[in-house]
User: Fold these one by one.
Assistant:
Number 1:
Amino acid sequence: MESYRFLVDLMLILLCTKLLSIITKRFHLPQVVGALLAGLILGPAVLGWIGETEFIDKLSKLGVIVLMFCAGLETDIVELKKAGKASFIIALVGVVVPLLGGFIVAYIFNQEHLIASDATAPMMLQNVFIGIILTATSVSITVETLRELGKLHTRAGNAILGAAIIDDVLGVIGLTVITSMADSSVSVWLVLIKILLYFVFALIVGVIFYKLFEKWISMYNRDKRRFVIAAFVFCLFMAFSAEYYFGVADITGAYIAGLIISGTERTKFIASRFNTLSFILLSPIFFVSIGLKVSLPTMSAPVVWFSLILVVVAIITKIVGCGLGAKICGFKNDECFQIGAGMISRGEVALIIADKGAALGLMGSAFFGPVVIVVVATTILAPLFLKVAFKNKEELIALETTEKEYPYNKTDDKDLVLNDAHTKKLKEKLDKSHGKSRPYHT
Amino acid sequence: MESYRFLVDLMLILLCTKLLSIITKRFHLPQVVGALLAGLILGPAVLGWIGETEFIDKLSKLGVIVLMFCAGLETDIVELKKAGKASFIIALVGVVVPLLGGFIVAYIFNQEHLIASDATAPMMLQNVFIGIILTATSVSITVETLRELGKLHTRAGNAILGAAIIDDVLGVIGLTVITSMADSSVSVWLVLIKILLYFVFALIVGVIFYKLFEKWISMYNRDKRRFVIAAFVFCLFMAFSAEYYFGVADITGAYIAGLIISGTERTKFIASRFNTLSFILLSPIFFVSIGLKVSLPTMSAPVVWFSLILVVVAIITKIVGCGLGAKICGFKNDECFQIGAGMISRGEVALIIADKGAALGLMGSAFFGPVVIVVVATTILAPLFLKVAFKNKEELIALETTEKEYPYNKTDDKDLVLNDAHTKKLKEKLDKSHGKSRPYHT
């Protein structure tokens, strides 16, 4: 049995994530919620059918690297530049306020007599890390809701999409700095120099790789599979060298590798192949592995309180932060609320950060439950807040009917893959080609 | 380092298999050869950069399951029935003769003072197992060569394609019987009853699954990803239950799962997704893991002799066996030689069988080298034999030029994925639509 156990684990993981994400989809909830629930149910929290094994551990690590690589691949650098000052300010204030909020809540609860942390990093860093988790934004669910409401093309809608892309980049920077500091024996300056060196390294290697890759593509246009493999090798190289030589998180390296390749001619083909790898094997394993780390039965009263407060803080700080940013940029009050509401959802990004932090001793295992609760709660509540923010019933109904004609209305299973930038591109495609064939495979 | 070591392993595996398979392709050799060389070079035989780890072990197990699942998916049951009596007889005699030949060679060498075997199964079974390995046929390289020669549509060409499909099925049956017998403590009758029960089980479960799956597909035609996941779960279920409840090889279960799904409407979509999973991650790991098991430096003189003799026997027995079968069916003498030459190549199928046998104690580790040598040698020599068999220079040149117009002339990286049946379908498509879009993604 033992040597075939992993087949059963894999079977259960695939079956449960799919079943639960189909169910959550029925209730208009994102499929990430379903996948997380699958992990909770299969893991020690409920049934205890699956434990953490090396197979699951390694594949979930690979899964998160591929997820971040896809996120990089699907970031449109041209769009990023176009997103403009307004989106930048919204994203920046929308990162700073939750960071502060998360830090304060963690500062209060992360104490021996309340929530005993088994993390190894200094308390200060642990508390900042909770803040970093709250900075993440996942707009895939927001985009779906806005499309449903017919509000995707409003001024607020555009601001949300732009800010979300920049938010990703800011999140990666925050993550990079804090994970590099996890090893407390190293001085802060050395850490910062190493980060700087990594970015210089990434820039040089990136430019060289990009040029060679483009030239190779132009020389050889038959077999595209070799480009996919080359991209994968580059991603693994950047991830590994980040972690091993510079003390920078591997997922930062993977994200940067994706960014570098995102400008090439074969990006779409490459991205679609990695999306397949992700949905068919790696993503379900990653999300379940998160669920496996949560042990609900052992949640003490302070942990429950911490969770509830963290959810409230997560929502309020994003609304206030992004709203404030929007206000600075001259948006009207109702638009400020709309933009804030559109940035509430944390989704998979927060999980990726939390997972990395836990591995590095930046987050105690007792905090996994609260983080999962924040992700699930904000993702479920985001559409409700958005609907309230955009409440204008008559216009809503009128627009809903016209929007229903769109063939892209259902992005289906895409949620298991990071697709903020992707959805953005889809939106553009919609405007241009309204009803042609899908740009990505389904 | 330790926890990131697997990223480096994966990077090296992907890089080397791709580089070497591009190089072998240049020399008109199948890419399987390149992938095997990659394993030999990275493993203890040459550089020793990669050792066997749990990560590689589990993923290569999953890889071979997915390879066999794809083989099943791409088997055209309708074609199988059409292949006719001639192909059946060719395949059958072409299986029996190599089985005998392999058995005899193994019987001579598999002795304490020649090649000491560390396998646990009775000697008799070990020797039969070497025979079973020689029964395998991989026609992908043959199809490529025939297409190049413009001989794919000849009577001999059709007979080869038909016989190759049936050969696969016979090979699976042989493998099933012998692996089930690996546990010597169980009586032969019990083993046969269990195999029979598994086929009954597979038939019942298969019919139920097929009906439900077809109904589901007809009910829901938007998101196709869920069908891919359902197919994967079914494949894992069949593989695991074969191994665990019936003592039948897991790859037999995977192959049968593929066969069952091969008749559904979504087969193409499902197969293309599994091909992606295979080429991007699992196949390279599987082929390298085979190479890792070969330690050339420790090859003793008897092992070298055994290898050479096995290569000769492998070639002669296929030519004689298939030729004899063709003769029985009334083919002309030159056609008999052509058919025999077309079935020489062993390719990945022999490796899959050998890998399974080694895991079950049916084959000593000293035999891995010889098997790899047989696979590489027969795969390299098959095109040469074919060219000799079809030597008719004028016709050859004339046909070569017309065939060059075919857009499918290069199947490129496909060799890493079992694609005998696939190539068959491609060939049909060629006849029908000569130049339209590719049926599978590239």
Number 2:
Amino acid sequence: MHDAKSVELAVNTIKTLSIDAVEKAKSGHPGTPMGLANIAFELWAHYLRHDPQDPTWIGRDRFVLSAGHASMLLYSMLHLSGYSLSLDDIKAFRQWGSKTPGHPENFETAGVETTTGPLGQGVGNAVGFALASKMTAARFGMPTEDVRIFCIASDGDLMEGVSGEASSFAGHLALGNLIVIYDDNRITIEGETELAYTEDAGLRYEAYGWHVQRIDGHDHKQIRSAIDAAIAEKTRPSFIVARTHIANGAPTAHDTAESHGSPLGDNEIAATKKAIGWDAERKFFVPEATSELFRERAVELARDKAAWETRFQKWQSANPKLADDFRTFMAKSAPADLYEQLIKALPAKDEATRSHSGALQQVVGELVPSLVGGSADLGPSTKTLLKNSSSITRHEQSGRNLHFGIREHAMGSICNGLSLFGGYIPFASTFLVFSDYMRPAVRLSALMREQCLWIYTHDSILLGEDGPTHQPVEHVWALRLIPNLFVIRPADALESAAAWAIAMARKGGPTAFILSRQKVPSVQRDAQFDPRSVLRGAYIAQEAAGARPDLVIIATGSELQLAIAAKKALELDGRHVRVVSAPCLEQFASEPIEYRNAVLPQGVRRVSIEAGVTGPWRQWVGENGITIGIDRFGASAPDSVLAAKFGFTAEAVIQKIRSAS
Amino acid sequence: MHDAKSVELAVNTIKTLSIDAVEKAKSGHPGTPMGLANIAFELWAHYLRHDPQDPTWIGRDRFVLSAGHASMLLYSMLHLSGYSLSLDDIKAFRQWGSKTPGHPENFETAGVETTTGPLGQGVGNAVGFALASKMTAARFGMPTEDVRIFCIASDGDLMEGVSGEASSFAGHLALGNLIVIYDDNRITIEGETELAYTEDAGLRYEAYGWHVQRIDGHDHKQIRSAIDAAIAEKTRPSFIVARTHIANGAPTAHDTAESHGSPLGDNEIAATKKAIGWDAERKFFVPEATSELFRERAVELARDKAAWETRFQKWQSANPKLADDFRTFMAKSAPADLYEQLIKALPAKDEATRSHSGALQQVVGELVPSLVGGSADLGPSTKTLLKNSSSITRHEQSGRNLHFGIREHAMGSICNGLSLFGGYIPFASTFLVFSDYMRPAVRLSALMREQCLWIYTHDSILLGEDGPTHQPVEHVWALRLIPNLFVIRPADALESAAAWAIAMARKGGPTAFILSRQKVPSVQRDAQFDPRSVLRGAYIAQEAAGARPDLVIIATGSELQLAIAAKKALELDGRHVRVVSAPCLEQFASEPIEYRNAVLPQGVRRVSIEAGVTGPWRQWVGENGITIGIDRFGASAPDSVLAAKFGFTAEAVIQKIRSAS
């Protein structure tokens, strides 16, 4: 335990580093780091087990700053703890190319576990970390059995629905290794939380089945005893309501909304430093005693890490097979010939692509132990249950199937946490229309470059009777707009296999599967067709008969069959029609220009067919092309009726092409 | 009070109508209507005040079936209660063009208050209704002072974060006129709620500040006494946990997950009818005694309605000015010359478009009493506070400013409720990147054709230091993909005025405002420019000098200044450049082809400039056009640095056009 004076010195260092950095950047959030400095000090000085020299050590505790706007708090702690984050990095807060962006970005800064800022997401990620740690320990034992997850959440994090969903799920699964500290400072951007937020958050977490404590967030003794009790509680996640004061220690800004999102200003900073007896002129100052305190902590941590390494070595020696499996798991390995293996296992019968994908997923699951996931209560419809695995419950976590409940947004956020933890390639499934419910998490998976699989079924108005509330129209394109997200809409079993192969090979980002509810026929491809061409995102499924094509029809998913029917009819008219299947436009766009031009020759008229909005298809068919799709909301009726009414029959498509070309 | 036998008969009628309709459609959800039949009977036979002859009567109680998949329950009640919904309509359940689509759609069926199905939304809408009723009563008094809101919610509704957000908000505002009945049937699609949902929902609602009761949902006496107590409770919203059994009354399907989403099958239906002593062969049967019961209820309701009319007449006579204001309010009237009035009030200084819009909104607020709304805790940043109005609190609801808290999704859902209630044109503001958090509600506003204003600021990477988590890239186009949503991105004060004019005139759908954080210069337009051309969505801001244009640059928002700078430089090169400003592509697309061709002449090369994804711009610039935008995530740095790094400077744009054309 440290004496009160050295604690105070360290806390003041955290506060002044934060306010100096915000001031220099002329933008940022100074109040929250000040209010949280006491808690952060205790966490990093006494509890958090980590290794600044080895930031990706699987056995470390995870710290999640869900209140990402308080990024300077985290950067201050990383700097003091000896991570590769210098005072110069802190001085470059919020500047181009720095390790200290406005909100914490795990892909920019070692020691940052996840990217936060969009509120509530960090809580979901933390639940994912806690779950991953439990699941890994249940499967492999020692490597992650001691991992704890610490999360700091703000009022905003708790107001967002995603954190409520995730917390209900965490209580359900009794994630006793999760500790969320609620920064109850009662201040938001618009003023006091009294304006909009007066619920009893602690009681709410009791309702979720959490262990709840209430403390003064500036009282070090209370902070320590609450964290001790939370760690001791093994069967419930812990929620610590810490009453804090924003901008604590700033004479005037203290407890004000202004201190939330604006620099304090030179005068207030000077007054703050004066109040603690510091030189008002000295900026970015780290007293030697504070450096020394964290150096001592680093020595303890290195000792703990070395002990872990020793245990890990012993565990490996005692469990050679398991250790081998663990390495495979951690590498997220998939067989190099996965696609070929999947092709051997292709379902023979005509089915919906959701069924094809579901059948292939069983094979992938056997080959790739990293694959885990579940559905937002639509497993029987989305066909994503891994049949040879059990379901995760509060009593047993060695299985691979998760039941997320009707909580799409938390599902996304939790899967991001699973992926970030290490070892997991998570999948999450729901109806395509409900991708909107989890879009912020999908975006973050793309930004963070995580290999998450978002499996969306019931992919067009052709799902039928459920009607326009359930019928996606704009969603496929809305997903295609997200940078670094691959979107794959397979047309049959073979393309479903390609979807899995692409997604499993794609380590630097997420993949969305777009799958039909309705049955689709197997595509008859040309004799010279090479199955590997599907992996290029778009390919010639049927070449024009007899001559060079004078028309190219590009289609995706269930509409490929319409393109093939149209080709047949139009060739009877004397046209020469090539059918291009384009399951993954992002992959195709990244292919060499020669290949792209070979598939879509310049100067040949193009048609696109996809049962969704048409506007963005112009980039693929050009100004003189023909786009066939649907630019309005759907309707409730059987799918065959909808196909007829909205022009998704062979006859309607043929008619449309004939009259337009 | 009705005797037990007639109650049982009516309940069985509700159940059998529902299962017969699902069976005939061969799709739908039979179990939930059966489980809820007792509660629905009590609500419609004793409590709900409404007028089947006048479904839009402002003084009616509102009933929201948040569990929209149980649509047949609602259709059964509407039929029995005498709405224009015949047995033939019920037989056409889930068929093309019927009044009985798969999920309730308020724009298809009289008596359906809102469109539900996407779970959780109905709870948010119900909170909006409750709030609207209180606000209207606070402003006008009598017309809505007795309105109660009844909502039935399922497990799925409660698991979704949006309902949690909305319920926390309802508790905060003490909406005592809201009664949510929770259909606690413990069954979801994947199986028992035990799989994923074991929190204490009642306790959670106590934490939100609600009045909570727990009952047997099949016991009529308990149902009535709980509703009585809920109505008597005036200072808190009420939550009734009704333990029910899904498919109650079906011998085998009872309490099974299968009964949730699949027809029961002929055998089970026959067994169900046999168990209640009904003829198994008779379908869609309404016993005369049940018809008579609801006819009697209709007489009571008519008497109540007449009494209300009398009170309303008296109120009008006693309050002629207020009654006049009420009519204006209900008509959602805005002055025909709103645009001209706004032009007179144009802010003179250069400001960010968020500031321009915020200043103009003050004027609109004065002219349009229907305008109410708020922000998800970003009012000081989004500039949407109505300065001459007070804030809504639990004690005082006559103001027009709402503090939604950091709850974007509920904000959207509640605003939909405000709009559906009647009289309100709601606005809701947050940062553009967080439009993702509320996208399901925005989609529903477009589907329901509600005049909601979604005000999004901080509209590009040029917001600066907050970094990629806060920088929209794909969002403007993602919104443009939603059918029936207008998206307006003004370039300066004048275009901000046009945005307000378009949005206020647009009665059949929502409008999204896309506004800059950073300051923008006033656009210098040609002398012959007509301000009314802005209302056409796109117009010639600066015509090519000297000759017909050989290049057309189309730009939106803050990038219009880059187009103007590029024109100047390129004309020095000898080019003839037209600058088209395109604040609203949806409006422009609906203009006559002659106008569109006049603005964007065929055969002239085009350039688009917008600080967002470029792909969909191809539909406006064609295959040979040039698109200038950003197709990756942004970064944390000051806006001037980002502009330089990502090519949003005049120099970079000029260079790009020069090298490409």
